[in-house]
Design brief:
Strand order of the largest sheet: 1-2-3-5-4
Bound molecules: copper (II) ion
CATH architecture of the largest domain: Beta Barrel
Order of helices and strands: HEHHEEHEEE
Largest sheet: 5 strands, mixed, barrel
Number of domains: 2
Distance between the termini: 75 Å
Length: 130
């Protein structure tokens, strides 16, 4: 009977410890939220760029058509890096508007993320390049 009491106490202590760790992780995640960055580059439709490196002026109409059909969007920076652009649910219009900018050089702003080697920016806003 005494042993059972200790087991219950132990389980409770463990649960409290787990909750404390979870709370600390939540705080760390909020603190580590990436700051917004601004990057310039060409808006890519990832289908044609990844499969055949198509981009630029000649590919503009196709890029815009690909993006309007819902294909993934990317940014080709001047130093040749490719960044996946994803929607910010709170700024869906900013992402939607970029679909008509396939092949154009724009400036995009938002937090950057890297998961499993893939870099992405969540688009908060865009502007004409300076
Ligand atoms: Cu295309």
């Amino acid at each position: 009977m005494k042993a059972t009491k200790w087991m219950v106490a132990g389980a409770l202590a463990a649960a409290v410890a787990v909750a404390a760790v979870a709370q600390a992780e939540d705080k760390a995640a909020a603190k580590d939220a990436p700051k917004d960055m601004t990057m310039s580059g060409e808006i890519l439709d990832m289908v044609c760029y990844m499969s055949s490196e198509a981009h630029g002026e000649k590919h503009k109409a196709c890029a815009q058509s690909c993006l309007k059909r819902g294909n993934p969007m990317g940014l080709l920076t001047s130093d040749g890096k490719v960044i996946l652009l994803v929607e910010d649910h709170g700024a869906a219009k900013a992402f939607e508007d970029l679909k008509a900018k396939g092949g154009d050089t724009v400036q995009v702003t938002g937090p950057m993320f890297e998961r499993g080697g893939l870099a992405a920016m969540q688009v908060k806003s865009s502007a004409a390049p300076k």
